[in-house]
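User: Hey, my collaborator sent me this sequence without any context and asked if I could get a structure. I don't really work with proteins. Can you help?
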Amino acid sequence: MSRHSLIIPGRAPPSGGNFAFCFQSVSVPVGFAKGTKMRRPHLLISGAWLLHAIAWFLPIVKGGVTVPHGLPGWQAFRVAACSVWPYDDFRTDEWYNAVLSTLGAATTLLFIFGSVWVVSRGSYALRRASAWIATSAFIINAHWYVLFGSDRKDLRIGYFLWWFSFLALAIGLFDLSRQKADNQQL
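Assistant: No problem. I've predicted the 3D structure and written it out in structure-token form, which is a compact way to encode the shape of the chain:
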């Protein structure tokens, strides 16, 4: 990470009891310097995290009882995971619905825990692989839109924010891995 020098007010050591104000130079990372812009990958990834977090509290699908206008995201996660983590009286009717719902819940867990770790500690190769995983998660989670068929009008804003958060994360991770690769070649 490159650094900038800033001149900030400070105090000189006492000399004969006289405290004189002086200025000292300190070195700070570029990301913390005033006027520094957030890079595109970090903006996309932060936006993806924000979309995902907001989706947990917005209605996902019409017909919920917790939120008047639909099932909130956190409860939709529990319903999607009901094949492996029983929740009230919810059951999946077909085996492929059970598999797709469980995969959808797993992608959410990967998003929450995996993306934070990959962005903060991941290598170039891991970030690239995670970008492909996020892309796959976006495609897998399209099954809700496809399988709802004529009832897809019942999907609410929370679903679309949740779904597109995977796309934004994938694009951000692809950009981040490309930038890191470019920096390593220099």
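In plain terms: The longest helix spans residues 157-185. You can pass these tokens on to your collaborator as they are.
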